[in-house]
Design goal:
Layout: E1 10-11, E2 14-15, H1 31-35, H2 37-41, H3 55-84, H4 88-112, H5 117-121, H6 136-144, H7 160-171, H8 175-185, H9 192-195, H10 210-218, H11 224-255, H12 267-273, H13 280-288
Antiparallel strand pairs: 1-2
Helix pairs in contact: 3-4, 3-6, 3-8, 4-11, 6-7, 10-13, 11-12
Binding site for heme: 247
Family: Belongs to the tryptophan 2,3-dioxygenase family.
Subunit structure: Homotetramer.
């Protein structure tokens, strides 16, 4: 070290900027320009007056959730396309990414849970009837995973873009449908009634599929690709249910048994969502495995 400058380029606890670092962005793409940070960071507009300190938390919590849901939908749609093309490996890569996003989304509830009932009550009235129930991306994700409900379309009648996204997810085969069709193309005995079902309806338990999955689980080495995919789908549902449960407990923590801003019964309505399922046969088959 000489003249107070350490060999690692730090002086007086200040890191020196390397000469090669670009600092002039008058005619270059910058980080903020690429990400359009001006638009993104201007999108948080609390409406409480006087502005409540915690409304920014509430807005950012939900906006970041919507950004992650955008990516989840992007990945699930790609996974469906890969399955249709008999490309299982890249489909599973997409699913793996979704699983990591799900964990992030679930952990996010702990941030919102720092909002106390008293704090939330001081600005809740400005939400009007705005509610996460109206998230079209969340609904599209549910539909892509097979938990469809055509009655939900009416929620988005006033928003043509949202309506189109949800309608498309309603009318296309789900991720599970695409997986079962791939299995059929690979010679597995998937019942024709399952393959020809009305894909706009919510998936319901199909007991005739359980023996098929039991044979896959009985010989995982012989059916490794199918076996691995089954377990990846189970992970997806597990993660989704954990998110739903954390949502429920956060709501109970903050508003107790009050009705939701969107008109639902609140916590009881969310609790019933825990009864909804995506891949019931993949859980039922566990009872059939010997040992």
């Amino acid at each position: 070290m000489a003249d107070g400058v350490e060999s690692n380029g730090v002086e007086s606890n200040t890191r020196q900027i390397e000469a090669s670092v670009v600092t002039d962005f008058s005619d270059r793409m910058s980080y903020g320009g690429y990400l359009d940070l001006g638009t993104l960071l201007a999108a948080q507009r609390p409406i409480s007056r006087p502005e409540h300190h915690d409304e920014l938390l509430f807005i950012i919590q939900h906006q970041t959730t919507e950004l992650w849901l955008k990516l989840v939908l992007h990945e699930l749609e790609a996974a469906c396309a890969y399955l249709r093309a008999d490309e299982l490996a890249p489909a599973l890569k997409c699913v793996a990414r979704v699983k990591h996003i799900q964990k992030t989304l679930t952990e996010q509830w702990s941030v919102l849970a720092t909002l106390t009932p008293t704090e939330y009550a001081q600005f809740r009235n400005v939400l009007g009837n705005a509610s996460g129930f109206q998230s079209y991306q969340y609904r599209a994700v549910e539909f892509v995973l097979g938990n469809k409900n055509s009655k939900m379309l009416q929620v988005f009648d006033a928003d043509p873009v949202a309506h189109a996204v949800v309608k498309q997810a309603l009318e296309q085969p789900s991720l599970y449908d695409e997986f079962l069709r791939l299995l059929a193309r690979r010679g597995y005995a998937v019942p024709s009634a399952v393959l020809d079902r009305d894909v706009t309806l919510a998936w319901t338990f199909q007991p005739e599929l359980v023996p098929l999955f039991a044979s896959i689980y009985a010989n995982p080495d012989e059916h490794w690709a199918a076996y691995e995919t089954c377990e990846e789908l189970v992970d997806l549902e597990d993660n989704f249910q954990l998110w739903r449960f954390r949502h429920l407990k956060t709501v109970e923590r903050i508003i107790g048994s009050k009705t939701g801003t969107g008109g639902s019964s609140g916590a009881p309505f969310l609790r019933r969502a825990l009864e909804l399922t995506f891949f019931p046969e993949l859980f039922a088959v566990r009872t059939e495995i010997p040992g």
